[in-house]
# Entry
Amino acid sequence: GLNAKFFNVGDHRRNVCKEKPQNADFFSGSNTEAKQARENIAWEVLEDLLQWLETEGDVAVFDATNTTNARRKGLMDKCRVRIF
# Structure
């Protein structure tokens, strides 16, 4: 009975980066421009998720590659500020 929604960063990235090739170079750690674009997209999706939770949702799933400690810490920090 809870209002739940799935937020997929990859789906959002494919929608907003239609004009840019998303090949191996796009995901390379040495491609600083693409890395920043990927980070920005992840934060946009998180912002959408938090807004949705604040207005109408009960449970949200943030589906993203959160492999670094810095990314996970940033996610937790942002969620703590917005939700608690």
In short: Strands lie at 4-8, 59-63.
